[in-house]
Write a structure and sequence with these properties.
CATH superfamily of the largest domain: Tetracycline Repressor, domain 2
Largest sheet: none
Number of helices: 12
Radius of gyration: 20 Å
Number of domains: 2
CATH topology of the largest domain: Tetracycline Repressor, domain 2
Helix content: over 70%
Shape: elongated
CATH architecture of the largest domain: Orthogonal Bundle
Number of strands: 0
Distance between the termini: 69 Å
Order of helices and strands: HHHHHHHHHHHH
Length: 204
Amino acid sequence: MSETTARRGRPATVDRHRVAATALRLFTDEGFGNVTMDDVAVACGVGRRTLFRLFPSKAAMVWGGSGEARDAIDGVLAAAGDVTLPEALDVVRGAFVASSTFPPEALEVTRQRLCLIAGDEELLSWGTSSIGTSAASVAEFLSRAEGAAQSSLRARSLAAACAAANFAALVWWAQSAPERDPAGVVDEALTHLLDGARTWAAQG
């Protein structure tokens, strides 16, 4: 007797990652605005209600995985403990590199996500407003490194610049250099950015 038969009445388990991957292929091939949730449900062989239980919208399918990236950044920052501001810059760079280190089987899906987000202003806006960015947690970390009780202008500016550079580097990788290692691309971009910021940080 199968598990599905034995547990009659329970919905069959649906692979969330497989559904998202199928949706991304549809969005990439046919255009994000030309594909409906019903189209995705049919392509995945799941019911409309099941699909909406997994993903409340098409945008949520595209932005899947962003939570894991933020968790990776927060984990590196938390593990760093108390550091000085110049040292904190290296920690921040390492945190973004960690968040951009993907398993081989996730590279193509990640590339498709980034290309779709970069090509659709509404999709980009949805993610930044609904999910947010890592800039706030990075700003708090840099402020602690400064010994400040509240986020300073310098900390907020550096955090915003790092978050923007990280996203720009990943989009460049997705669109122009998919043969490269995305973590290496992010490392290179943030090294250039933070080398210029060290003088500012050294000013105390």
